Amino acid sequence: MRTMSATPTSSQRVTHRAVLAIALPIMAANVSEPLIGVVDTAVIGRLPEPYYIGAVALGGVIFSVLFSAFGFLRMGTTGMTAQADGVGDRDELRAVLARALMIAGACGLALIVASPLLRRTAFAVIEGSQAVESQASAYFDIRIWAAPFSLANYAFLGWFIGLGRAGTAFALQILLNVTNMALNIVFVLGFGMAVEGVALGSLLAAMVAATGGAWAVSRELARRGGGWQWPAILAPARLRRTLRVNGDIMVRSLCLLLSFSFFTAQGAKAGDLVLAANAVLMNFLYVYSFVLDGFAHASETLVGRAAGRRDRDLFRRAAGISTLWAVAVSVALAALAILAGPLAIDGLTVNPEIRETARAYLPWVALAPVVGVWSFQLDGIFIGATESREMRNMMIVSVAIYLGAWALLTPIWGNHGLWMSLLVLFAARAATLAARLPTLDRTLFGTPGPVAAR
Hints:
By secondary structure, the protein is mainly α.
């Protein structure tokens, strides 16, 4: 028997303040993440041999790719949690988290079991010197044990974001990142360890964050009430839905990851100078994603609540207000790139040739947030509605358009064509998802009608 609250626990209205209350903590948490790489480089750079830095960098890339493939645990959990919260179903709130943690545990253990094969495959794809690979292998063999905890942290973050508890999600992310940085400093500079110390710090930080997440969940559930209804948690239909949503988002995420990897690989074919310039400019895209992700998360939460209630007016208002803020911020980011971009490039590299080359492609980077914001927001809307199949299918179509644009544009305009094709990917993602909005509206509310702010 389900436990329902007398009224939904979340607010009946979507306001500008509600959007910012979710978006701003997420932005702050995102900004803290790159600091881990800076600290890792700084502490391991105190060791005399250069291959230590290379090993940590290589190991970090491998786990970034490996764990990002499981980002569906965050996104899928957010949408389903927000929908359960929207109707005040306290038992289903517990069930959504339980299913996500079951998947996280199973996938984490599978990664550990498959780690020898994963290690060989990773080093076959990303080659390094013998010394770098030897040290990176030691890093890999320690950090892989963090897999169940790292994936559980995705589930915890998704659950709290779905509840609109962005402050708690922010606190957990800060706990993870600050603990990671502190332990790396202690193990490397204090105990004299090398890459093993950095890997151990990452492992223990994931465990600490997972423990903190479990504690925060227990407090939230005690406040909300409800109970663990295992027949409902393990209901085949609910499990199939969870697996379907997560599987679709995983395919979508892998397509996006492969698209950016393809971009990097094609830049490398144009020579070291172009590769370096593109790498410098990609830092701008990382900043954009850190900022615009906050509004996409707000869309996921608020749209998910409205979808759970089958409230079209609330749905439109949630989509409209969050998108309004996202577009305004994207224009500000574009202006900032134009005005301060050359100075930022100079801060990222001292090489005059790389500086000059990066400046030549800066206009494309300045356009990126204005073009890309729509795909960010539409992703958030479809995640909140848990219409993951549409996301998967439209991403596949968009990647095909992207590759077609690359084949057409790069022979004519070289690296300019490559950057143009990346913007085509952003635009294609937005256009294809926007074309599916009427279908989404009918699916949720039963009658045709455009999804727009009133």
